[in-house]
Amino acid sequence: MRYLSIVFLLFISLKINAQELFVVTEPASNAPAGSLSVRVGQSLLENQMENGNVYNLSPEVTWGINKNLMVRASAYLNDMNNGLDLRGGGVYAKYRFFSVDDLQSHFRMAAFGRYSWNSSAIHQEPIDMMGMNTGFEAGIVATQLIKKVAISSSVSYGQAFDNNNYKFPDNLGNNAVNYTFSIGRLMHPKKYTSYKQTNINTMLEFVGQTITENGRSYLDIVPSIQFIINSQARIDIAYKKELYNSMHRITSDGIFLKLEYTFFNVTK
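^ DUF3078 domain-containing protein, sequence as received from the core. Prediction below:
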């Protein structure tokens, strides 16, 4: 109840020019048409199996094919076996199928899908297509932008398969429903005078999952700050905190750092 109160207070305190570029979730908007972006995501998460932390590294390349379609390729590395090793990769696509644009707001919906492959041993209950499991995910996301505030939510279904030579454990559920809710606000500049102005956004994101076979679930909260420089370079800093969990997880709380640079009009 305390966390629901925090969300309610955020809603009533935020005044209705924002950018819908969230840190750990995807909005319904796509990468700019004809653009190519390179991103390096990093996280340092608490290791629940032994003392210490797990370092994850995820280089990504995103191509904005047109205003409605984008694709992304990712690689997943971590140091769980006493060295930074490549664990797998994935491909992601998002298609925006609905858009209503107004002078100071817009509403968009998109369908997305992901396929990932991984060679890690399977030790945890949560299904993680971005670094731990082989499988697919498909879902829908909706995003509302009103002046300086962006609100986004998604729901998806995921199914995990065997990880290369590691069979998926019979005692774990391999089907899950994922859900997210995100809210972000443009804090600076108060008034635009040039595209070269540095934008500062603050965000609050909620990420959860429920295993369909047994009903076990988790819910994380992720506050973050984001800097956008010259409308091309992006720096994200976030902290993930577990709010609720009934699963066995390898990692939980930790910090995120993402660096991204976008090249415009590359493929036009």
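Residues 1-18 have pLDDT under 50 and may be disordered.
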